[in-house]
């Protein structure tokens, strides 16, 4: 495929990924995730005793606090918080620690496009780092749709602004899940084909969206490989540090 | 496209700000803008059960004044407070941003909230729900004058709909003094030119006043006249509200 | 109804209402087995929907939308602004969604509902990105003055599918919006043309000679579905939303293009087939809503 993006990537190419964990001393778990120049730092505190009012005390409660790079939080940040909260709720095993609250603080270090997917990936890595029991990992990706209908993955901010539409997609990654496979995979579609979260902006045709889904899913395999590798590689070093 | 909201430009309403002409309210004989007689109230439209999510609710429309009141509870007191033998009443009145001709902020109306609380407090049998709170929330959809009396009357109807025990329905009517004349149930335009206003909240069948607010310049005989007018209108409004409740009850029985 | 047959260990002789409160999930699953919902709807059917235009006299355009018990009141007020330099011949739209304490037992005064800003953001995304409104039509004097349309949507009764009802009310309010005739006065401010000075012609130039309506293209409509196991429940009530926690909102415009597909997490994964089913349900629903809206508009014109 020809190179036609400003930064010399092909349409299907992701920006370089980087993930480092256990950066913060006081947090129970933390991770810094970067996709190119988009960098997000996530910290996990908890599980702490008690849930807030209006939350189900029979389950663990998840709380997300979004810290923008500068300025105050507005409506978009509130929406991000809500999406992150709902997404993380769906990957956590909430019944293991009932009547507790786990706080995830997401600090935007730098925004260069695909901010929300980057934050979701960071939060997922931070949850692993904190040892919160998860059903499976989640992998988030941003797919952009150009005017002519081609799909571009992991756009930078500049690209996002030029695009006709884009979709933030979150897929599960459960190759090694401990859960029985029974109820979760329906109609012979594997678990990885389900969408945890989908948020779209801009107008596109339904076919284009389905196309985005396909491309996003295949690219998410790469990210999930990376996520798994980076989580595993750091485990031994953590142990040695603790020892 | 999202960046546009970041810098909210200053805007203004194109409606003329200064009033066109001073109305002839000061004359002895004039016609009210909506053609009513001085001692004639606006036609009232009342309906209970406007909000399904609430324990009780009512909608009231007096001319252009449109109000919804929801009642929640009795439920657990929000503030962790000491044990109390009697229940608590919590009131809140807010306006929509489009309630007034010029777009407002849609914020809470603190003064009306506390006036509503005082008006209802005396009529509710607080002993019937110890330790708990009854919340009375009002939203003024459109403000067309005499907002507070409409809110109070509507709130008592909503309380009755919620099955909260009361000594009697609470009805409220206000009178404006414009020059030599007393006009009952004033609209916004009349309120803005009034010399004084009198608001009475009462329990019509017990003939008890729960709240009386008097502002502006009044002579003693005028006050007497205004009180008589209000009490008379309150008892009539009480009948209308009673028949509204009876209708709702008979409709639900069928 | 069907739950009397739900003979479980504990629930054998329990009253239906008690069973519903204690075991909401089993109560619903028992219904879903029979492909019916507690309010007697089939799974894919939305609740009765009504739209009334012109509900607020003080606004330039307004509408009330009801989906089942969920009630939304939307009103647009037009104000004048100086357009920003980069879009000097365009007006602007500011959308806000309010959940006053009257609408639900969860909302308390001084403590706004968590979902309100999120719905607000979703609404402005859907309305602005659908391109329904041509912002150029909101221009008055290029570079000098343009309309700012403040759209405020109030939830009067919250019983699920808030976004659907709010979007319907918002769209209906725009179709009711009448731009008033205005002129520039001596101070350079834009003022409403009233009957008197129109005759006198003492004002220089009427900027907008007569009342007009916006031309709306590609109107977006939405349907929220709840995914639960393999079931898809269209247009959930508040109770259904709280028991089964995976909502999917699909927004399609009148030419069937996808404006938004919104699935914020939830325990159930959306597979390709479920996504396509939701889109198909929304397509049907868009047709229903288009008819409801056009009926409301023609009713208004007859009056």
Observed structural traits:
heterotrimer; A: 243 residues; alpha+beta; Ribosomal Protein S5, domain 2; five-stranded mixed sheet; four-stranded antiparallel sheet; 28% strand; disordered C terminus; B: 254 residues; 4 helices; nucleus (chain C); Ribosomal_Su5_D2-typ_SF (chain C)
Q: What count of structural domains of chain C?
A: 1
Q: What's the CATH first level of chain C?
A: Alpha Beta
Return the structural class of chain C: alpha+beta
Output the CATH homologous superfamily of chain C: GHMP Kinase, N-terminal domain
Largest sheet of chain C: 6 strands, mixed
Question: What is the CATH topology of chain C?
Answer: Ribosomal Protein S5, domain 2
Mean of all residue-level pLDDT scores of chain C: 86
Element string of chain A (H = helix, E = strand) = EEEEHEHEEHEEH
Whole-number total of structural domains of chain A: 1
Largest sheet of chain A: 5 strands, mixed
Largest two-chain interface: B-C, 45 and 49 residues
Q: Please state roughly what percent of the residues of chain A sit in beta strands, choosing from under 5%, 5-15%, 15-25%, 25-35%, 35-45% or over 45%.
A: 25-35%
What is the CA–CA distance across the termini of chain C? 43 Å
Family (chain C): Belongs to the RNase PH family.
Subcellular location (chain C): Cytoplasm; Nucleus, Nucleolus
Keywords (chain C): Cytoplasm, Exosome, Nucleus, RNA-binding, rRNA processing
GO molecular function (chain C): mRNA 3'-UTR AU-rich region binding
Task: Report on this structure.
- The complex is a heterotrimer of chains A (243), B (254) and C (303).
- Chain A has 243 residues and is an alpha+beta fold.
- Chain A has one domain: GHMP Kinase, N-terminal domain (Ribosomal Protein S5, domain 2, 2-Layer Sandwich), CATH 3.30.230.70.
- Chain A has helices at residues 75-91, 115-130, 157-162, 206-242; strands at 17-21, 29-35, 38-49, 61-67, 100-110, 137-145, 151-153, 165-173, 197-201.
- In chain A, helix 1 crosses helix 2.
- The longest helix of chain A is centred in the last third of the chain and has 37 residues, at 206-242.
- With 254 residues, chain B is an alpha+beta fold.
- Chain B has one domain: Ribosomal Protein S5, domain 2 (2-Layer Sandwich).
- Chain B has helices at 110-121, 147-162, 188-193, 220-253; strands at 11-12, 44-48, 56-62, 65-76, 88-95, 132-142, 171-178, 181-184, 196-203, 208-216.
- In chain B, helix 1 (110-121) packs across helix 2.
- The model of chain B is unreliable at 1-6 (pLDDT under 50).
- Chain C has 303 residues and is an alpha+beta fold.
- Chain C has seven helices and 15 strands.
- In chain C, helix 1 (16-22) crosses helix 2 and helix 3 (115-129) crosses helix 4 (162-176).
- The radius of gyration of chain C is 23 Å and the shape is elongated.
- The chains are: A alpha+beta (243), B alpha+beta (254), C alpha+beta (303).
- Chains in contact: A-C, B-C.
- Chains B and C meet through strand 1, strand 4 and strand 6 of B and strand 3, strand 4, helix 3, strand 6 and strand 9 of C.
- Chain C: It comes from Nelumbo nucifera (Sacred lotus).
- Chain C: Residues 46-180, 219-270 form the Exoribonuclease phosphorolytic domain.
- Chain C: It is found in: Cytoplasm; Nucleus, Nucleolus.
């Amino acid at each position: 495929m020809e190179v036609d993006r400003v930064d010399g990537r092909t349409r299907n190419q992701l920006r370089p990924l980087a993930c480092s964990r256990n950066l913060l001393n006081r947090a129970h778990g933390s991770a810094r995730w970067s996709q190119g120049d988009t960098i997000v730092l996530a910290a996990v505190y908890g599980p702490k005793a008690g849930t807030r009012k209006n939350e189900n005390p029979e389950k663990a409660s998840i709380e997300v606090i979004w810290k923008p790079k500068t300025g105050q939080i507005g409506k978009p940040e509130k929406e991000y918080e809500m999406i992150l909260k709902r997404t993380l709720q769906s990957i956590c095993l909430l019944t293991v620690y009932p009547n507790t609250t786990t706080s995830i603080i997401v600090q935007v270090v730098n925004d260069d496009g695909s901010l929300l997917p980057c934050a979701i990936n960071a939060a997922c890595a931070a949850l692993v780092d904190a040892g919160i029991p998860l059903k499976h990992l989640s992998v988030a990706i941003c797919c952009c749709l150009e005017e002519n209908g081609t799909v571009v993955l992991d756009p930078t901010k500049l690209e996002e602004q030029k695009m006709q539409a884009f979709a933030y997609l979150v897929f599960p990654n459960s190759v090694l899940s401990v859960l029985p496979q029974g109820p979760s995979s329906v109609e012979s579609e594997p678990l990885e084909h389900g969408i945890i979260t989908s948020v779209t902006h801009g107008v596109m045709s339904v076919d284009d969206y389905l196309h985005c889904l396909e491309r996003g899913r295949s690219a998410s395999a790469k990210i999930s490989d990376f996520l798994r590798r980076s989580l595993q590689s750091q485990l031994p070093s953590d142990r040695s540090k603790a020892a | 496209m999202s960046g546009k909201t970041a810098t909210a430009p200053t805007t203004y309403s194109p409606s003329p700000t200064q009033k066109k002409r001073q109305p002839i309210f000061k004359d002895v004989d004039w016609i009210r803008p909506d053609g009513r007689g001085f001692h004639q109230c606006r036609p009232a439209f009342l309906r209970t059960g406007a909000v399904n999510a609430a324990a009780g609710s009512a909608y009231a429309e007096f001319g252009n004044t449109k109000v919804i009141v929801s009642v929640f509870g009795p439920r657990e007191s929000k503030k962790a407070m000491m044990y109390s033998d009697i229940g608590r009443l919590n009131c809140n009145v807010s306006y929509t941003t489009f309630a007034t001709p010029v777009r407002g902020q849609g914020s809470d109306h603190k003064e009306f909230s506390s006036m509503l609380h005082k008006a209802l407090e005396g009529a509710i049998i607080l002993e019937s729900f110890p330790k708990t709170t009854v919340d009375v929330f009002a939203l003024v959809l459109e403000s067309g004058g005499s907002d507070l009396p409409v809110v109070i009357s509507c709130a008592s109807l909503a309380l009755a709909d919620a099955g909260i025990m009361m000594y009697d329905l609470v009805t409220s009517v206000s009178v404006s003094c414009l020059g030599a004349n007393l006009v009952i149930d004033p609209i916004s335009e009349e309120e803005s030119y009034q010399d004084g206003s009198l608001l009475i909240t009462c329990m019509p069948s017990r003939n008890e006043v729960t709240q009386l607010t008097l502002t502006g310049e009044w002579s003693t005989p005028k006050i007497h006249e205004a009180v008589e007018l209000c009490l008379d209108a309150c008892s009539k409004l009480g009948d209308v509200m009673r028949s509204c409740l009876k209708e709702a009850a008979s409709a639900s029985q069928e | 109804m069907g739950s009397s047959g739900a003979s479980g260990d504990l629930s054998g002789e329990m009253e239906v209402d008690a069973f519903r409160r204690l075991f909401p999930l089993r109560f619903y699953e028992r219904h879903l087995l029979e492909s019916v919902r507690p309010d007697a709807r089939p799974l894919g059917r939305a609740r009765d929907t009504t739209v009334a235009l012109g509900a607020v006299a003080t606004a330039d355009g307004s509408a009330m939308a009801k989906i089942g018990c969920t009630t939304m009141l939307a009103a647009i007020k037009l104000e004048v602004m100086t357009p920003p330099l980069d879009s000097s011949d365009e007006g602007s739209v500011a959308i806000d969604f309010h959940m006053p304490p009257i609408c639900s037992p969860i909302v308390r005064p001084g403590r706004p509902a968590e979902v309100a800003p999120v719905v607000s953001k979703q609404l402005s995304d859907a309305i602005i990105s659908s391109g329904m409104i041509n912002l150029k039509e909101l221009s008055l004097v290029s570079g000098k003055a343009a309309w700012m349309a403040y759209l405020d949507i109030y939830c009067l009764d919250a019983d699920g599918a808030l976004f659907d009802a709010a979007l319907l009310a918002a769209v209906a309010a725009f179709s009711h919006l009448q731009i008033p005739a205005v002129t520039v006065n001596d101070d350079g401010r834009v003022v409403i043309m009233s009957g008197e000075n129109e005759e006198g012609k003492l004002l220089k130039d009427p900027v907008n000679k007569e009342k007009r309506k916006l031309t709306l293209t590609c109107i977006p409509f939405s349907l929220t579905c709840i995914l639960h196991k393999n079931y898809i429940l269209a247009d959930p009530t508040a109770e259904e939303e709280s028991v089964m926690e995976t909502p999917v909102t699909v927004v399609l415009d009148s030419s069937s293009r996808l404006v938004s597909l919104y699935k914020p997490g939830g325990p159930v994964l959306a597979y390709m087939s479920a996504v396509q089913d939701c889109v198909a349900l929304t397509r049907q629903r868009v047709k229903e809503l288009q008819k409801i809206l056009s009926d409301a508009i023609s009713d208004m014109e007859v009056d």
